[in-house]
Amino acid sequence: KMSAQPELLPACLVPRHYDLDIDVNLSEFVFAGRVQITAEVKEETDVIVLHALDITIKSVQVTSSDGSVTRPISQPLISLAQTQPRKLHKCDGVTSFSEDTISIQLERKLACGEVVLDLSYDGELNSNMCGFYRSKALIDGKEEYMAVTQHEPTDCRRTLPCFDEPALKASFDVTLRVPAHLTALSNMPVKDEIVEADRKVVRFERTPRMSTYLLAMAVGRLEHVEGTTKKGVKYRVYACPGVTNQCLFALDVGMKVLDFFSDYFGISYPLPKLDMIALPDFAAGAMENWGLITYREANLLIDEVNSPLVTKQRVAYVVAHELAHQWFGNLVTMSWWTDLWLNEGFATWVGNFAVDHLYKHWDIWTQFVNQYAGRALQLDALETSHAIEVEVKRSGEVNEIFDEISYCKGAACIMMLTSFLGMPSFRSGISSYLNKFQYGNASTRDLWESLTEASGKDVEKFMGPWTRNVGYPVVFLSRSSGKLSFAVERFLATGKEAPGSDWWVPMRVLHSSGKEELLDIKGKTLEVEDAEGGGWVKGNLHQTAFFRIRYDDALLALLGPAISELRLSPSDRLGVQADAFALARAGKMRTDRALALAMEYEEEEDFTVWADLLGSLADVMSTWAKEAEYEGLQQMMVKLLQKIMKKVGWEAKDGEGALFPMLRPLVILNLGRNGDEEVAAEARRRMKGGWKSVAADLRYAVYATVVGTGGAEEFEVVKRVFLEAEMSDERNRAMRALCATREEKLMDQVLAMTLDGSIRSQDVFYVFGSLSANRVGMDVAWRFLQANWSKISGEGEEKGVETEGMQACSLP
Questions:
Q1: Which is it for the CA torsion 191, 193, 194, 199, positive or negative?
Q2: 549, 546, 548: which is closest to 536 by C-alpha?
Q3: Quick one: 800 exposed, middle or buried, by C-beta within 10 A (0-12, 13-18, 19+)?
Q4: Beta-carbon neighbour count of residue 746 at 10 Å?
Q5: What Cα–Cα distance (Å) separates residue 535 from each residue in 121, 478, 532?
Q6: pLDDT tens-place string over residues 448-506
Q7: What is the rounded CA–CA span in Å between residue 420 and residue 463?
Q8: What digits encode the pLDDT tens for the residues 698-716?
Q9: Pick from 202, 159, 201, 207: which is nearest to 187 by CA?
Q10: What is the pTM for the complete model shown?
Q11: Residues with catalytic function
C-alpha cells in the first residue's frame, strides 16, 4: 500500500510560464542563463524554494503584478534553517540547504497573485550526460563538441532553477545564444534568428504546458534530412555531418508512426514539428522530449549496407516507443514518479503495436514474449523485486525504478489487459483518457476509470493486484479423474514459498482438439471438467498473461510431440520451455527433464523460439560453467542445432523465413562458441577477407566466433574493427565480440579500455554484460569491478560511467 507522501516543493508558488535565455560557451564548457518564471502565489510567503543543482545563482528579483519589486535580503538567514547550508550563492539571500534546491529569503512577504521571478545564473556544460552537457563528436577526423540536454527524470534543475516536478507544468519560451555556424534546436520551431558577427540569437516559439523534464535543447554542427507527414507535420532527423543517409530509415518509420498514433489515439500530434537527433554521447537509449527526441546514434542511424536486420528492428521500435510518449507521457503526464510505469509500460507495449502495424512479417508479438514479458518474469521472480506502482518518496530515488518492472512488466500487464478487455474497448478507453487529461496530469486510477467506462468491466479489480503488488503467480496444472485442476501460488526464483496476492488469473486454455477456453481463476484453486479428455493441454494461450505454468509430468510429456510437430504457435512453443527452465532453476522441476524437453525443438525454425530456448540453455550452462558437466552441455547444444544449421546455412536464400537473417547468426554464434569446429573454421575463413566482406547480419557472430576460438592475433583483427569502424553500432558489435576471448590477459585489455576513454562511458556496461556471459570472463570482470569500483561508479575523482547491467558480474 502507498503510505508515505512524496517530498515535494512547498505549494505556496505554482509556475505558469518560463522565459529562458541561455548563452552557450562551447570553448569553456560553460553557460550563462537568465530565467523569468511567471508564477502564482497561492499563499503569502517570504521564502521561495525551487530546484537547482550544480548552478550558481547570481541575482534574483521578484516583480508583482502591481509593478513592485521584492529582492532577497542582504544576508542569508542561516540561523532560521534546520541544517547548515551546503552552498552559498553569489547572490545574497540565496542558499542551498539541500543538494538540489535553493532557498530565497525575501525582504518581505509576497501577497497572493501573479509574480515574475527573475534569476540569472551560471552553469557548466558537464561531461556526465545529464542536465545541459557536452557531447564529443568526431567530424572530418577532428574532435568537436556539441551541447545537449537530458532532463529526465530530475535533471532540468541542472540547466535552470525551476519547479522540477512532473505535476508542475508550465509553458516555455526559449532563447539560445550560440556560435553562428552551429545549429540550435529546441522543442518548438525557430521563431526568429539574429546573427551578430560570429554569434547568433535563436528564439523559439512557445511550447504547450509541459513538465520540466521534457524541455530540450541541442547546439552543434548538424545536418538533417526532412519530410512532411501525410497529416502535415514537418519532420526532421539530425545527425553529425556526413551521415545523413543513415537517417532515412528512421525518418520513414517516424513519419508513418506519428500519423498512425494520431489516428489510433484520436488526437492529432499537437506540435507543428518533430525533430529527432542522433547523439554521440547519450546515457539513455533515447528520450522523448516533446518535439525534439534525442537518441544514441546506435538507436537511430541505419546504413542499408552495414546494418543488420536486428538493428533495423531496434531502431524502428525505439522510434515508435519515443513517439508514443508524445501522447502518453508528454500530453498526459503521470502526477508523480510512482506512476512512471504509465509512461514507460504503455509506451513499450504501444511501440511494439506500431511496429507490428508496419512490419507484420517481423512477428513482433512473439518477440515481445521473449524480449519484454520474459525479461520481466525473470526480474519479478526475485525476492528483491518491486511492484509496478512503487512508492517514490524523494526525486533522487526515481532512477532506481527505470527498470524491467516499469518497462517490461508494465508492458506485459498492458498486453494482458488488452486481451481481457478486447482491443476496441481498450482503444476507446485510451482515447477517452488522453482527451480528458490532455496537457495535465493523471494517475493509474484515472486510466483504470477510463477503461472501465469504455468496457463495462471492473479494470481496477482485475489489474490492481498485478500493479500494486510485487511478484506474479505460477499455476500448477494437473489432470486427474476426468478433471483439470489449477493451483495458484507466488513464483520465486529461489523456489521458496511466499505469500502471494489475490491475483485474478485469466487462464486461456488450448486443447489438442483445437478447442479454446477462458477460465477466470479468482482464488487459489480451480477445478473444471476435462471435456476434451486425454489429449494435450496448453495453458496461458499465446502467452498473453503474466504468469508461469507448471504442468504435471503427464501433461508435460504430452506437450513434447505437439512441440516437435509444430502444432503449437511459436509463442506457445516458446512459453512451454521458458516456464520449464525457470521451474528447473527454482528447484521445482528436475533439470534433466527440462533438458529432455529442449531436444523436442530440433525441428524448430522460428527465430524467437530459438532465441529464448538458447537463452534458457545458456543459463543452465552458466550454472555448470566450472563443472565437468559443462562439456556435455556443449555437446548437447551442438547436437540440438545441427538440423537448423543445415536449414539456414551461411548464405541467404530466396523465399527463406523473414527472420532467418536474425536466426542464421544466432545459430552460428552458438555453434561456434560451443565447439563446432566446422563453423569456427568457416568464420575464420570469412574474416580473412576483411570485416566489410562479411554480411552485415553475420558480423557479430563471426567476430565473436573468431575471437572466442582464437588467440591474440584474432583478437587484434577484431580490435581493429572497433578502432576503425565509423558507425557506433559496428563498434559496439566489435567491442562485445572482444569479450568472447578465452585469454585473461586479453580480457584485461578490454577492461582497461573502459577506463582510458577508448570506450565511451555510455557503452561500458556492454563490456561487463558480455564478459559475465563468458565462462572465464565472469571472474575476471568481477575482480576488475571490485578493484576499480570507485572509478567506475564515479565515487572517486575520475569520471564515472554508466553502471547499468554490471550486476551480472556479481552473480555467483
A1: positive
A2: 549
A3: middle
A4: 23
A5: 74, 13, 7
A6: 999 999 999 999 999 999 999 999 999 999 999 999 999 999 999 999 998 888 999 99
A7: 10
A8: 999 999 999 999 999 999 9
A9: 207
A10: 0.95
A11: 322
